[in-house]
């Protein structure tokens, strides 16, 4: 078959396959154009999930008739000349409008400031209509109708109207977060009206993600080698069941980048179970030459020149910020406590019907006061000095709390977590503070304390177990080279390996803490991480996962009756332990109820 030149209409339809995946793609491209045109007010109207109508109105610079004719031609743009390494605008390819016009009925009306009237041009599924006058105020109005009406194969792959509407809303949310000074107004027959008035970044984040997130977020501000990271990241206890509430922006551009997602997951791996995800709004700013935004026509992916540096900055900054938050926990639990209280008329009971006596300063706990069976003769505080994690034997810690100081029983209310007053259901410690009361989950709290102690042990060289016969793992030569360069780091973690010819490594020792493992699988995973990120945290992550499991099994169990001095000892340890506001699974270890909230429960 002879080679022929494709028509412009066919070329645009092929390009549209990458640029216009769904209605939300059109919204993204047109909103980017409006922002590049200097608009500070953008209005969006949709119908039928964007398939029937998308209309975007902005107050940007506007275009004259000559610019309108060029705007619908491929690779015509005002944003780029000849330097792809110095891109400072959202759009630059000059493909969006001709691609949209090839698969829809597109109308563009625009009026520059100071012009007597506006002009409009149309493209009806690839057929250009001539430029004519139009009546409108300064700015631009772009209307897209009947998307994919002439391309039924594309139309049938779109999702339901509700799903497409949700995708448009998500796109607008991301743009609104990226540009808090721009007003976004979203309405239509297929949605409720949404309005994001201009304001500060914190105000915009509150508008998009809710004020609960702002109250339960940590401010991030870090810089390394010319790369700056800013934004808000949620406390580990403020987590969600999916990663849809993680928003990333590179040089002001909303992106969905797997490298950034992986870095956030790594930073929170100490604090969240695998099925829970943090909430974050993070901005990465770096010189344009250090990032390639021309990876895909949709411009949703980026490629960093030094991905390991960016990942290291994200992981380090997030971990440091979480640690700096101390024992702070999410306010979700405390704010929701009031709803759990139900005023009512309770039957009168005699004082001796199973209620514990008040503790006072250092009174007895419920079990001791009532002679509960199974009360221990000596608390776990007695044996706390014996707690020395033995990584060599891979044994679980004994689950003891460090003994209290002599004056611990008279703990001051001015401590952040107050003084213990009672134990509820042999699992929850009730403590009085100078602001109200705190309820502590004793198992979750001690689990974090033990885990942090085990992690401190990981900073030293870990004991290893010698393999009777070294295991030979076949790998590509480039993976062997990478593993050889990182061998000294692995040695610190108890993994001893060396090159074994050009295409294999010999593993002689493995970390004792891991017990029996799939050596070949571990080595291949480490090689994959080195290839992708230039560094490997996989082995340390595995060791920390084992430490978390040991902490869970070695900490104070629910159902254990504690003495007042033991409860106070646990509270003081929590105050001195990093990240004590949440257990290893992301659940809060304590919640607080302010005195004013308690008084409100009683109508005071």
Summarize this structure as a short list of keywords or feature phrases:
single chain, 604 residues, alpha+beta, Heat Shock Protein 90, Ribosomal Protein S5, domain 2, formyl-coa transferase, domain 3, 8-stranded mixed beta sheet
The rough form would be described as globular
Please state the CA-atom Rg, rounded to the nearest Å.
Answer: 31 Å
Largest sheet: 8 strands, mixed
Integer tally of domains: 3
SSE layout and pairing:
Blueprint: H1 8-19, H2 23-36, E1 41-47, E2 53-58, H3 65-71, H4 96-102, E3 105-111, E4 118-124, E5 127-134, E6 139-145, H5 152-155, H6 161-178, E7 183-188, E8 194-196, H7 201-209, H8 211-215, E9 217-224, E10 227-234, E11 239-240, E12 246-250, E13 253-255, H9 258-267, E14 277-278, E15 280-285, E16 291-292, E17 303-304, H10 307-324, H11 332-340, H12 366-369, E18 419-424, E19 428-432, E20 436-441, H13 442-458, E21 464-474, H14 477-485, H15 487-492, E22 496-499, E23 504-511, H16 519-533, H17 538-554, H18 564-576, E24 590-594, H19 595-601
Parallel strand pairs: 1-7, 12-15
Antiparallel strand pairs: 1-2, 2-6, 3-4, 3-6, 4-5, 7-8, 9-10, 10-15, 11-14, 12-13, 16-17, 18-19, 19-20, 20-24, 21-23, 22-23
Helix pairs in contact: 1-4, 2-6, 9-10, 13-17, 13-18, 14-16
Quick take:
The chain has 604 residues and is of the alpha+beta class.
Describe this structure in words.
By secondary structure, this protein is α+β, with helices and mostly antiparallel strands. The protein has three domains: 8-196, Histidine kinase-like ATPase, C-terminal domain (Heat Shock Protein 90); 201-324, 2-Layer Sandwich (Ribosomal Protein S5, domain 2); 361-604, formyl-coa transferase, domain 3. 33% of the residues lie in helices and 22% in strands. It contains 19 helices and 24 strands. The strands form six sheets. The protein has an eight-stranded mixed beta sheet with strand order 5-4-3-6-2-1-7-8. Strand 4 and strand 5 form a beta hairpin. The longest helix has 18 residues, at 161-178. The chain is globular and about 85 Å long. The termini are far apart. Mean pLDDT is 80; it is low at 345-400.
């Amino acid at each position: 078959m002879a080679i022929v030149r494709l028509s412009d209409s066919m070329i645009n339809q092929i390009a549209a396959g990458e640029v216009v995946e769904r209605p939300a793609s059109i919204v993204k491209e047109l909103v980017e154009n409006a922002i590049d045109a200097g608009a500070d007010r953008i209005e969006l109207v949709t119908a039928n999930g964007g398939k029937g109508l998308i209309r975007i109105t902005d107050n940007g610079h506007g275009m004259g008739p000559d610019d309108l004719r060029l705007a619908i031609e491929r690779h015509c743009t005002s944003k780029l000349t000849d330097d792809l390494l110095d891109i400072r605008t959202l759009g630059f390819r000059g493909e969006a409008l001709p691609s949209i016009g090839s698969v829809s009925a597109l109308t563009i009306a625009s009026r520059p400031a100071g012009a007597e009237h506006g002009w409009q041009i149309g493209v009806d599924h690839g057929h250009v209509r001539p430029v004519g006058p139009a009546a409108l105020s300064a700015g631009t109005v772009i209307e897209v109708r009947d998307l994919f009406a002439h391309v039924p194969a594309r139309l049938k792959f779109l999702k339901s109207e509700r799903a497409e509407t949700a995708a448009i809303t998500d796109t607008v949310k991301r743009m609104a977060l990226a540009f808090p000074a721009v007003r976004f107004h979203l309405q239509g027959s297929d949605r409720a009206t949404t309005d994001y008035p201009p304001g500060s970044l914190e105000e915009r984040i509150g508008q998009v993600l809710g004020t609960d997130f702002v109250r339960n977020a940590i401010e991030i501000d870090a810089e390394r080698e010319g790369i700056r990271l800013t934004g808000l990241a949620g406390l580990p206890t403020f987590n969600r069941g999916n990663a849809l509430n993680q928003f990333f922006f590179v040089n002001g551009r909303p992106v969905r980048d797997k490298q950034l997602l992986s870095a956030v997951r790594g930073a929170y791996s100490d604090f969240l179970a695998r099925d829970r995800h943090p909430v974050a709004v993070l901005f990465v700013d770096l010189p344009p030459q250090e990032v390639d935004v021309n990876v895909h026509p949709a411009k949703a992916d980026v490629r960093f020149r030094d991905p390991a540096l960016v990942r290291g900055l994200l992981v380090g900054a997030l971990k440091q910020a979480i640690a700096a938050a101390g024992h702070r926990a999410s306010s979700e639990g405390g704010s929701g406590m009031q709803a759990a209280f139900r005023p009512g008329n309770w039957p009168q009971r005699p004082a001796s019907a199973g209620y514990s006596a008040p503790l006072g300063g250092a009174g007895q706990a419920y079990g001791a006061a009532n002679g509960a069976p199974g009360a221990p003769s000596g608390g776990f505080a007695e044996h706390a000095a014996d707690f020395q994690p033995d990584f060599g034997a891979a044994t679980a810690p004994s689950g003891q709390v460090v003994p209290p100081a002599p004056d611990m029983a008279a703990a001051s209310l001015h401590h952040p977590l107050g003084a213990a007053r009672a134990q509820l259901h042999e699992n929850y410690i009730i403590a009085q503070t100078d602001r109200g009361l705190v309820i502590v989950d004793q198992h979750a709290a001690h689990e974090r304390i033990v885990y942090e102690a085990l992690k401190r042990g990981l900073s030293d060289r870990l004991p290893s177990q010698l393999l009777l016969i070294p295991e030979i793992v076949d790998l590509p030569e480039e993976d062997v080279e990478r593993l050889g360069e990182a061998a000294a780091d692995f040695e610190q973690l108890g993994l001893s390996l060396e090159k074994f010819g050009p295409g294999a490594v010999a593993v002689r020792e493995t970390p004792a803490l891991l017990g029996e493992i799939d050596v070949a699988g571990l080595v291949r995973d480490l090689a994959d991480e080195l290839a992708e990120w230039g560094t490997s945290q996989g082995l340390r992550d595995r060791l920390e996962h084992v430490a978390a499991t040991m902490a869970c099994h070695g900490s104070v169990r629910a159902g254990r009756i504690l003495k007042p001095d033991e409860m106070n000892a646990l509270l003081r340890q929590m105050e001195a332990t990093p990240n004590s506001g949440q257990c290893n699974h992301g659940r809060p270890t304590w919640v607080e109820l302010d005195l004013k909230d308690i008084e409100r429960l009683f109508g005071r």
